[in-house]
Specification:
Helix content: 25-40%
Shape: globular
CATH class: Alpha Beta
CATH architecture: 3-Layer(aba) Sandwich
Radius of gyration: 19 Å
Strand content: 5-15%
Structural class: alpha+beta
Strand order of the largest sheet: 4-3-2-1-5-8-7-6
Order of helices and strands: HHEEEEHEHEHEEHH
CATH topology: L-fuculose-1-phosphate Aldolase
Number of domains: 1
Length: 241
């Protein structure tokens, strides 16, 4: 009798984890194809809350320094954060997680409604971020990011606690932010929604940049933006997760 073939690393993965890893790869390839981030810059993650104990915050994230075209489900790194001890671990025999895993963790901790995160160096969002500007309420769609503005996180080197702390502050009451001299980060209830918000932020940044060429944009008032935020709470198919 011939020996049974060994299972590949992909086959050994739990089904739910493998499915989510495949979805992360699909969206990574999408953002690259759409020109939302150059080379292997940027990163994507998604929470695994349904599979882990309540005292753990676990998420899958793209590895550091790997071309998206070469990714396999086994390459997507499972990061586990113990909320009791504050310790964060991953399988050290595999690939290293994105060097920016810390601000993913901080965003998830700050906004428990966020289940997926997309970080890109998209052209116009990065341009606005490099000008050290937030995106103000020039258009009602700014409220898609959860507030009256899309805030700017002050510059800190990638992978640093200072940057993570800035992201945590932004995500405490928003679902997107710009990071000065860096790029943008968006979060939503699933990967498809997070990617959609990434494209919305990039489009808003492009419009804001164009308006700045004409002078200072006219802004919607706090009252007008509050009306939009309230309306967004019941807009669309709210029962779809």
């Amino acid at each position: 009798m011939s020996p049974k073939p060994k299972k590949s690393d992909d086959q050994k993965m739990p089904k739910t984890q493998k499915k989510l890893a495949k979805e992360i790869i699909k969206h990574a390839l999408y953002m690259k194809a759409k020109g939302l981030t150059p080379g292997h810059s940027g990163n994507i993650s998604a929470r695994l809350s349904a599979e882990t104990p309540t005292e753990q915050l676990s998420f899958l994230i793209t590895p550091t320094g790997v071309l998206y075209e070469s990714l396999k489900p086994r390459d997507i790194v499972l990061v586990i954060h113990d909320e009791t001890t504050g310790k964060t671990t991953w399988d050290e025999k595999g690939l290293e997680p994105s060097s920016e895993w810390q601000f993913h963790l901080s965003a998830y901790q700050a906004n428990r409604d966020v289940k997926a995160l997309v970080h890109t160096h998209s052209n116009f969002a990065t341009t606005i971020a490099c000008a050290n500007l937030e995106i103000p309420s020039f258009h009602y769609m700014v409220a898609a990011a959860g507030g009256k503005i899309i805030p700017l996180v002050p510059y800190a080197i990638f992978g640093s606690k200072k940057l993570s702390d800035g992201v945590a502050k932004a995500f405490n009451n928003h679902k997107a932010c710009l990071m000065a001299h860096h790029g943008q980060l968006t979060g939503e209830r699933n990967l498809a929604k997070a990617m959609e918000l990434t494209e919305i932020v990039e489009d808003l940044a492009k419009q804001f940049w164009a308006l700045k060429q004409l002078g200072e944009p006219t802004l919607l008032s706090d009252r007008q933006m509050n009306e939009v935020i309230k309306k967004f709470q019941t807009y669309g198919q709210q029962n779809i997760q």
